[in-house]
Amino acid sequence: MAKDNNERDLSATMSMDELTATIHEQIPAMPAQLAAGARFILDHPDVVVTSSMRDIAMSIGVAPATLVRLARALGFPDWSSLREIYVASYRGSPGLYARGASALVEGADEESLLGRMANTLAVDTTRLGLINDAATFDAAVRRLAEAPRIYVAAFLSCRAPGLTFTYISRLFRDGVHLSEASGSSLVTELATLNEKDVVLSINFSPYSRDSLLVAGAVKRSGAGLISLADSRVTPLSDVAEHVLLFETASPSFFPTITAATALAESLTAGMMRHLGVKATEHLTRVEESLYAADTYVAANARSSGPAPAPGIASKSSPPPTTGNNS
Question: Within 13 Å, how many C-alpha atoms sit on residue 309's CB side?
Answer without folding.
Answer: 1
